[in-house]
Amino acid sequence: MGLDIELFVDQSVCLNYKCEVCNKIAENPVLIQECECMLCMQCSINLVQCPKNCGKVDSVVPIKGRDLRIYPSLQIKCKHGCGWTGTLSTHLNHIKNDCELRPIECTFKGCSKVLLKREISAHLTECLFRTVKCEHCSHDYLYSESEAHLENCFVLCPVIGSDCGEISRFKLTSHLKNECPYVDVKCFWLKFGCEVVTKRVNLKQHLLDNVSLHLLLFKKSLDNLAISPAQSPDLTSISNTEIITEETIVELLDKDLSNVSSVLKGHQKTGGTNIFGSIQLSLNGASSPSLYHDIIAKLEARYQKELSEQNSKHEKKIEEMKSASNTLKLNDFQQRIEELAQIKANQEQQIKNLEGVKNNQDQQIFDLQKLITELKNKKVVIQERIQKEEQEKVEKERIEKEKKEEYERQRLEQEKREKDEKERIEREIKEQKEKNEEKLKKL
After folding, report:
1. Separation CA 192–CA 214 (nearest Å)
2. Which of 93, 139, 154, 185 has its CA 20 to 30 A from that of 251?
3. Angstrom distances, CA of residue 257 to CA of 24, 199, 239, 253, 300
4. Nearest 10 degrees: Cα torsion 359, 363, 366, 367
């Protein structure tokens, strides 16, 4: 296709290079060899008849002479409106390399956006279809699939010495906070003064090995509480004006020991010594043993109650699971039958689709074979026409050769007759001259 005439600075001159097909200024102009009508190179492809009805188009040739000098120097403006003006010879280079308003398609597969050249660099850095490399697993993925990749991205546990293996990055924070056995954690008795920091895997053993120490720290905290409640670090959640009672102490202790309960229960289930008995023995020397024994008794009663409730819930859950087991198996079996039926239906549909594709392919093959046959017939016709033209050409050359030979023969005969006539005339002149000389002598 040609160039719009409005883009040219001198429109009167550029009209001399108007394409006869698209009626625009010819781009890469060529001339029809037979009639010298001008066309774009693109417009001339597959052109059979001259648009001005000059005749059949057999071939095209590049412009030459004066046009070859004038055409590249025509002044033209940028078709994208960036303000550039220059010659036609530099126009294409400007469009490809310099024009900031040239529309460019995003190069990332799946993105259909078309942006200006000056905008494409910024878009490529934020395109949802750009490929990014995961800094953790080194795999490439689309930016639009970041969340899905996060769930499927597995990394080694970052804790030194850990043998946790690969963990989903989506669950890594939870793993480090609640599960990893090699993370350093503080003792549950920190509020009572135990500042030990150990691995989570060693915490249970630390609690079991230091029961007496922790109870002494607890007794000391209670003694300090009786002397100066406002200075106790364990009473931060209680107002200074609130009265510190036995129930308050039990409540605070129960709250602080909630994280230790699983450890203590596990110790009792394994047949260890009674933890609350150890607490009683450790408090026998306290300044107010009755208060401490009452506190421990209430804690033991609460623990026994919670343990009984948990056992009841566990037994009830087991019964529910047993009663629901048969129903679940039947439901699973029926669901499996439905899934298999659906799979069978999908496979039958796929077979039908494949048969339809096969029929389409067979039709396409038939059409291609038909087209090939037509092309072969056309090839035969073209070959016959070419052979006929070659024969006509040979016959024409033969006739021209005979004409040329006949012409040459006639020319030679004409020259011979002229020569003979010339000799005859010279001979007659000579004879006449001799007769005249004889007459003169007689006189």
Report:
1. 8
2. 185
3. 90, 19, 21, 6, 12
4. -160
CB 23 within 8 A of CB 1: no
* 269 pLDDT above the threshold of 80: no
Q: How far apart are CA 355 and CA 360, in angstroms?
A: 8
Compute how many other C-beta atoms are within 10 angstroms of the C-beta atom of residue 37: 18
> Distance (Å, rounded) from C-alpha 154 to C-alpha 138?
11
> What pTM was estimated for this model as a whole?
0.34
Distance CA 265, CA 277 (A): 14
Alpha-carbon Rg of the chain, whole angstroms?
A: 54
Cβ pair 294, 302 in contact under 8 A: no
Find the helix packing angle between 211-227 and 289-442, rounded to 10°.
110
Phi, psi (degrees; rounded to nearest 5) at 43: -70, -25
Enter the tokens of residue 29. 């102009």
Q: How far apart are CA 384 and CA 396, in angstroms?
A: 18
Pairing of strands 85-87, 103-105: unpaired
- State the burial class of residue 65 (Cβ atoms within 10 Å of its Cβ: 0-12, 13-18, 19+): exposed
Check residues 425 and 215 and name the one with the higher pLDDT.
425
Phi, psi angles (nearest 5°) of residue 350: -65, -40
Q: What are the tens digits of pLDDT across the range 139-171?
A: 787 888 777 777 677 777 878 877 887 777 777
pLDDT at residue number 59: 83
Q: Are 94 and 84 in contact (CB under 8 A)?
A: yes
Provide the token pair at 54. 């000059």
Given this model, what pLDDT does residue 279 score?
46
pLDDT in tens, 336-394: 778 778 888 888 888 888 888 888 888 888 888 888 888 888 888 998 999 999 898 89
